[in-house]
């Protein structure tokens, strides 16, 4: 699998005498996207989320299509040239296949519930290309706001309830500093990132449609993002 937007996979390794296996990929000195943006706040974020969408398009265009399944900021690494690289794609599904434990049970408690589409919080929920689109928009929100989705809500169950009710994240306003009630979370309590243009926010909202069929495809998403870049001054 070769794409400039996908982290290369070299193979699997194990330690002598151990029972665990480890995936081997190139080391990314810049770390993941959220950490990179904290150190480099003037990065062109529209370009970054477009590159993430390019990575998803590559996965979705395979035969058969590959669902990332666990897209969030920490699974987007930054290459030496500052470009986005998708990592950990398909691992949630592989874990489900190996353990026979449904996705919502095996991975929902590991922190990705804030990025998960509503259908994945239900019994028997299936990861699809459209659930990836939902997670892409949550990841894009995270990278624009410098906060995890639903950052003011601390308890996982409360986040799941909000999603089940069809409530989308609050639109961030740059310059405000907020703490979550009951304590801080990774990405919470810091100054919010940069302004989200109306056209981009409207795209996010469509990607968060409760019904998967109402969400755009990743190709449709890319087309809109490219149109925005044509009419948006680039951040140098």
TrEMBL record:
Keywords: Kinase, Transferase. InterPro entries: Kinase-like_dom_sf, Prot_kinase_dom, Ser-Thr/Tyr_kinase_cat_dom, Ser/Thr_Kinases-Pseudokinases. The keyword Kinase applies. The keyword Transferase applies. One of its GO terms (molecular function) is protein serine/threonine kinase activity. Residues 169-191 are annotated as: Disordered. It comes from the Eukaryota. Residues 1-235 form the Protein kinase domain. This is Serine/threonine-protein kinase TNNI3K. It comes from Thanatephorus cucumeris (strain AG1-IB / isolate 7/3/14) (Lettuce bottom rot fungus).
């Amino acid at each position: 699998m070769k794409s400039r937007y996908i982290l290369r996979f070299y193979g699997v390794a194990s330690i002598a005498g151990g029972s665990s296996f480890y995936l081997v990929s190139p080391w990314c000195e810049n770390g993941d996207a959220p950490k990179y943006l904290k150190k480099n706040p003037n990065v062109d974020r529209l370009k970054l989320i477009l590159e993430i969408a390019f990575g998803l398009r590559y996965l979705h265009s395979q035969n058969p299509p590959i669902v990332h399944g666990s897209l969030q900021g920490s699974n987007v690494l930054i290459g030496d040239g500052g470009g986005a690289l998708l990592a950990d794609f398909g691992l949630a599904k592989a874990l489900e296949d190996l353990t026979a434990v449904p996705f919502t049970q095996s991975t929902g408690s590991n922190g990705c519930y804030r990025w998960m589409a509503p259908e994945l919080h239900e019994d028997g929920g299936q990861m699809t290309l459209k659930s990836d689109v939902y997670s892409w928009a949550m990841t894009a929100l995270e990278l624009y706001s410098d906060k995890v989705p639903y950052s003011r809500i601390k308890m996982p169950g409360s986040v799941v309830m909000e999603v089940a009710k069809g409530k989308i994240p609050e639109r961030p306003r740059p310059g405000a500093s907020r703490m979550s009630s009951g304590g801080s979370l990774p990405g919470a309590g810091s100054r919010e990132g940069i302004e989200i243009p109306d056209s981009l926010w409207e795209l996010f909202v469509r990607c968060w449609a409760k019904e998967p069929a109402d969400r755009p495809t990743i190709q449709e998403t890319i087309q809109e993002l490219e149109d925005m870049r044509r009419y948006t001054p680039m951040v140098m």
